[in-house]
What does this fold into?
Amino acid sequence: MQITTLILGAGAAGMMCAAHAGPGTLVIDHAKRPGEKIRISGGGRCNFTNLYTEPANFLGANRHFHKSALSRYTQWDFIDLVARHGIAYHEKTLGQLFCDGKSTQIIEMLRMEMTQSGADLWLDCTLADLGHDGSHFTATLDHAGTRKTVTAQNIVLATGGKSIPKMGATGLAYDIAQQFGHTVTETRPALVPLTFSDQRFAPLSGTSAPARVSNTRTAFDEAVLFTHRGLSGPAILQISSYWREGEEIEIDLAPDGHLLEALKTQRQAQGRRNLTTELAKHLPAKLIEHLAQEIDLKGNLADQSDARLTDVTGHLRHWRLKPTGSEGYRTAEVTLGGIDTDGFSSKTMMSKSIPGLYAIGEAVDVTGWLGGYNFQWAWSSGWVAGTAI
Ligand code: FDA
It folds into this structure.
C-alpha cells in the first residue's frame, strides 16, 4: 500500500498533525483507543492549553527551538478550534484552561478534524520494521493480526515519551531517530513527585500548603502536597523538572512575606497565646505539629524575643530538604529530554539529514511546565509538521 504520510502515534501531537497533513495520511497506534493521555489528563477534564503560554515555560537543550512552532500555532489558535467545536471550557487557575465536560471531547474533536482532512487511523497496530531507500520509507505493520507493508514519502515520529509505561509509553521514537543517525539527549522523568528514603511525611499525608519552592535554578509559587512517599503537588512537580539527584530544594512556607510582622503584632495583642496555635492560623496545624520538634516551637507568643521570632520564621521560610529520588516514569507526567532538536528544522519539524522524517510532541527534547503547556507543544509541533507536509 502506498501512502503519503505515516504517523506513528495517535496521541495529541500525532492526531493534530494528521488533521493538517491531508489525504494519504495513515496514523497508527498500538493502543486500542487514540489519545489515551488526553483522556486521563487534568483529572479527566484535560488542561488543554495555557493562556499565558510563552517560550520561557519550556525546557530543552536548545532554548530557542520551540519558539517558532509556538508562535505559528498559538494557544489562541487552539482555543479557537475548541470554541468552533462548541466545547465549553474554563480557566481553573494561572491561565490553565480545562474542559467543562470530559476530556474525551478533545479526542472527538481531533478525530473529526482527522476525518475531514482525509486521514486514516489504524489502532492495535505495531511497527515490525522500518526501512528507507533514500526517497521512501517502507514500514512493516502488524495490524489486528495481519502483516501489512506500507510505503510512505513521509514518516512522523509522534509516539511520545517514556512516562507511564503502564499506558503503553515506549521509546520507539527515540529508537527510530537513532536508527536514522539522530541523537537523543538524556531522558528523565519530569513533573513527578519527589521521594525520601524514610517515610518522614507519612503522618502528614494529604496535607497541602501554599509555598514557594525553589532551587538554584528557579522558583515556583504553588501548592505543596505531603504524601506517604514524600512531596507532591504542583510546586513540587514543577521543580522536579529542574532538580537532580543529590540536590536540595528550599520550601518557603510563608511566601507572602508577612508572617514575622503578623507574629509580632499578635504577640502585642495576645501574648498569652501559644506560638504553635498562632502559627496554625497561617499554616496547616499538622505541619506545625510536624515541625515543632525540628524548630523547637514552644511557649507563648510573649515568651518569644524578636530574634527568636525571626529565627522561627527564617526556618519556615527556608526549609531545606534533600529528596532521595522521584517516583520515576511510573507517575511522571512527562519525559524531560528526547530527540535532539539540533538535527531538525524548527520551521517544519523535519530532519535536516533525512528528508521526509519528522519528529513532534513529547518525543522531542522540548518539555513544558505543568499547566497545559505540554499539550500546547503537542498542538503547535503537530500543526507545524502537518502543514509542512
Ligand atoms: P502521547 O503520549 O500523547 O501519544 C503517544 C502515542 O503513541 C500514544 O497514543 C501511544 O499509545 C503511542 N505509542 C507509543 N509507543 C508506541 C509504539 N511502540 N507503537 C505504536 N504506538 C505507540 N499535559 C498538559 O498539557 N495538560 C494536562 O492536563 C496534562 N495532564 C497529564 C496527566 C497525566 C497523568 C500524564 C501522564 C500526562 C499529562 N500531560 C498533560 C502531558 C501530556 O499528556 C503529554 O505531554 C502529551 O500527551 C504528549 O503528546 P504526544 O502526542 O507527544 O504523546
Notes: The first strand starts at residue 2 and ends at 8. The radius of gyration is 24 Å. The mean pLDDT is 97.
